[in-house]
Design brief:
Elements (H helix, E strand, L loop, with lengths): L23 E4 L5 E6 L2 E9 L2 E9 L4 H9 L14
Antiparallel strand pairs: 1-2, 2-3, 3-4
Keywords: Glycoprotein
Protein name: Sema domain-containing protein
Organism: Ilyodon furcidens (goldbreast splitfin)
């Protein structure tokens, strides 16, 4: 199923302004929870009901100052999100 961004039938919630770059998605084994990796946060969404998506938990997850320093020392732009596992 595909909905366009401006579709009135699109069952999508908008995240709070402090959640961006939602690029990693993981579905639980029982298909009732969707884990969303975002910039500086991990979200757990209850998707067990087809017409409602609700936030179960939000964990703030920021790179440490050492991770930021390591990225900058490698010539990476510190203004860009950096995943320490990729450096």
């Amino acid at each position: 199923m595909h909905y366009y961004g401006d579709s009135s039938d699109r069952p999508l919630i908008h995240f709070q302004p402090d959640v961006s770059n939602t690029t990693t998605l993981l579905l639980s084994n029982d298909s009732s929870t969707l884990y969303v990796g975002a910039r500086d946060a991990i979200l757990s969404l209850d998707i067990s009901q087809s017409d409602v998506i609700s936030l179960k938990k939000k964990v703030m997850w920021s790179p440490s100052e050492q991770d930021r320093t390591d990225c900058a020392n490698k010539g990476k732009n510190p203004a860009v999100t950096m995943d320490p596992s990729l450096v």
